[in-house]
Amino acid sequence: MQASRKVRSLQLGIVVTSILGLFGCATNFDRTPGDPLEPLNRAVFSFNDRVDTYVARPVAVGYTKITPNPIRTAIRNFFSNIGDVGNFSNDVLQLKGTDATEDLMRFAFNSTFGIGGLIDWATPAGLPKHNQDFGLTLGHYGVPSGFYLVLPLFGPSSLRDSTGWIFSYFTTPTSYLPAEASVPLFGVNFIGARADLLGATDVLSQAALDKYTFVRDAYMQRRRYLLNSGTAPPNYVDADVEPTEVSDTSQPRTVGVTPDSRSGRTQLSGASTPSGDAVTK
What we know:
By secondary structure, the chain is mainly alpha-helical. It has helices at about 1-25, 40-65, 70-95, 95-115, 135-140, 165-170, 180-195, 200-205, 210-230; strands at about 150, 155-160. It contains 9 helices and 2 strands, in the order αααααββαααα. The longest helix has 29 residues, at about 40-65. The radius of gyration is 22 Å and the shape is globular. The relative contact order is 0.15. Pfam families: MlaA. It comes from Paraburkholderia solitsugae.
């Protein structure tokens, strides 16, 4: 009996020691300020990257091969036009009367004369697009971004910006459609957004020594840039569609990997995509 108790005590000691050892390894991880969840974030980032490599990217490549460029442009315009509803809502919450008026006019103009938004007449007509989201609205009123987060499938975000998905759901018209319509539309939007990022993510894979760090820094820089200047973020599109040279004029570094996931497009993980607000997930 005593021998059995000693064996059990020894086994328990080994288990406790192992747990404490693992905990010690986690707490000794060289975390970056502002990213206290880095070990967890890296695990989620790795998961997102694998999903992108084996699912999202191949589908996006096939989409670009079988879909003519004018059709892809029309699809991009359609979802961008839907995003103006959310932009208008956040403009109103931020008490930006001029921006709200312009985004409302954009939506009305393109929805009427652009065949439901398939054609963007508002931009050449001089109505600029004001990319906004609920995270920027909270930041406008002084809510700090909080620590950096990587959301499964959606990509880079922050504690503050992660709330934007809830608000975006209620300000996206397609959310109120039946599931048999809203789900396919979400899929088309997702694939189109990922196709637009093919060029940017290829550059990311070739240039970044540590993709996680590169995406995180680019995301946080971009969010600060949007919050401080209110300037529209760059559009990352496939090189064979509209190659765009991107640089962050307010920062010494080049920002080159974050899609605008909350202005009618789906944010992908850093390269993602997309959450400052992401290069999504």
